[in-house]
Amino acid sequence: MDKIIISGGNPLYGNVSISGMKNAALPVICACILNKETCIIDNIPPISDIETLLMILSSMGADVKMLTKNSVQINCRNIIPGSSPNELASKLRGSSYILGAELGRFGKSSVYSPGGCSIGPRPLDLHMKAFEALGAHCSHRNGRIEITTDSYLKGNSIFFDKVSVGATVNTILASVLADGVTIIDNAAREPHIVDLAVFLNACGANIIGAGTSVIKIKGVSKLHGCRYSIIPDMIEAGTYMAAVAATGGKVTVRNVIPKHLEAISIKLEEAGVNIITGSDYITVESTGKLKGISLTTGPYPGFATDMQPQFSAMLCFAEGASDIHEQVFDNRFQYTDELAKMGADIKVSANHSIIRGGSPMTGAPLVCRDLRAGAAMVIAALASEGTSELLEIDKIERGYYKITEKFASLGADIKLVSDISSAQINRSASI
Ligand code: EPZ
Fold this sequence. Notes:
By secondary structure, this protein is α/β, with parallel strands linked by helices. It has helices spanning about 20-30, 50-60, 85-90, 95-105, 125-135, 165-175, 190-200, 235-245, 260-270, 310-315, 335-340, 370-385, 395, 405-410, 420-430; strands at about 5, 10-15, 40, 65-70, 70-75, 110, 135-140, 145-150, 155-160, 180-185, 205-210, 215-220, 225-230, 250-255, 275, 280-285, 290, 295, 320-325, 345-350, 350-355, 365, 385-390, 415.
């Protein structure tokens, strides 16, 4: 297994360019299933979750061509519904969007239970509730979610008891080609929901209200091809911002939409970091002397749960106490055991943690428990004294493009190391 080795203590300086957003690219790529014409998607991040999803589409019969490492051409005319392979679908959460897209185009779907980060229960009851409101029947067979319809999907009004990104995406996908009007009330407002709606509208869909909590979708008979560029990844940007705050230094995070980073910027300022906002960049300047803060995660425009581990790592270096309330997922503090190995003082009780920062932190062997937990390990290691060895870094590679190169270009002492000894053992075992 590959590892990341980090010798901490270097302040970070320079510029870093942010890639396209994973959580926008996943639904946009799945939305191509609704379309018989060709779409070109630009600014896709070349990360493993996207590669896995493109492999799923290819194996279902889609014509998928990488034009460059960031642009993909997709034609789903000949896709076979229900043919997504179990093994690949179980690797990522985004495979659940195949359900809504297949249902919307073919009136039926079958996908193996989706995987994704282990951060607490991740039910699909709201997705099923919406599919059923549109006239579908949902069941489980041999580990696959099966969805059928008696005749055709018909628009309806749907109210979600809880704000869910995934259920909002799937309802949009299922209703774009449905008969009549669908109204989603208490919809997620994340920028990636807006990105999906803008992409689908560019293909001829009729969606209004994305970005607010009420989305109205008027069904259309078909979609046409288009070329579309994915928005920048606010979570990748926020990760670099938190890292600079923790290590000290001055870095300009480029190719971002600053509006998407408001909650992150405000919390960094509260912690004592200087933020300068431009049209498509944010400069973060930090002395490395931070103050403890309180934060509560919530759906957009609240503070993103996907930034909670990275901020917790950063706050280990802040003077005084910080209070973190995790309100989206039930088990998103697993990484705190790893931070404790470095000397962090963190007490977790249910969905709340208290960090007493400022005690010395030293490098340690660290396991990346999930994607954002892995990003938190990188930040903690960059700001600590001594050397850390990060294991299970495939979790980081699911969502961050060239994280070691990007941090190295800012002056970090970080390298990706292939475990040659285990590679050699595997090779000799297979001879
Ligand atoms: C998406 O997950 C993201 N994943 C997650 O990103 C992100 O953490 C999350 O939204 C919240 O922003 C993708 O976009 C692929 P939800 P999703 O449905 O859609 C509950 C990352 O690090 N819920 O908004 O699965 C659920 O348990 C990842 O990039 C139900 O109860 O999240 C949670 O408590 C991790 N029933 C809350 O809603 C349902 O049917 C929000 O989940 C669906 C969700």
